[in-house]
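[job 0417] fold request received: C-type lectin domain-containing protein
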Amino acid sequence: KGFCVLKYSKSIFVTTDIENSQNISQLKDELDHLRENYSNLSVGKAKLQEEKENLTSVITKLRKHFPVDWYCNVSNQSTLEEDCRPCPWGWELFSTKCYYFSTDTLSWNDSRTACRKQGADLVIINNRTEQEFISSHTQGCEYWMGMTDVAVEGTWIWVDGTQLTEGYWSAGEPYSCENEDCLATTLGVNDVKNWNNIKCESSVLWICEGSSLPLSP
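[job 0417] inference complete; emitting structure tokens
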């Protein structure tokens, strides 16, 4: 009988040791799993921090090109709710671009400077549809556009550095006259073909073209 009790007690100890070993092994596995999760979380945190810094950089750059005050206006003073639009206030949206038709006159160089201060440039015509839009607004008045042949007489270059491929010149234009090196719409001509070359020092109206701000519907 005493032998049976001893044998039973020994069996209990062996069973307990096995269970403890299993528990320790399980705890080690759980610890390894926790360490792996912690490592993954650390990597994920670092990636999120990097993405945050990248987004902050993008937002900063966007604000330089798209100052919020140009596109948004406080519509409710009590809640400070803002009414935002794809173009700066006073500009017109056409396709994906914004256009500003000035009410004052400047030389070609000064008008370009005025456009660039607003994150834009003098207008470049890319197709007939855009030219039709522009001519419908100029209404026979002279407006500067973004093209000259200052560098080489007769070679017309847009302000983005590209060369003219399709023009909308008025009859008899461009007239090869000394110092008439800048493009403007023709005074008194209310037609799609309304381009004219005049002296860059002339003081006329001007048209700016800039990117529109993408807004969610």
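[job 0417] notes: The radius of gyration is 36 Å. The mean pLDDT is 84.
[job 0417] exit 0
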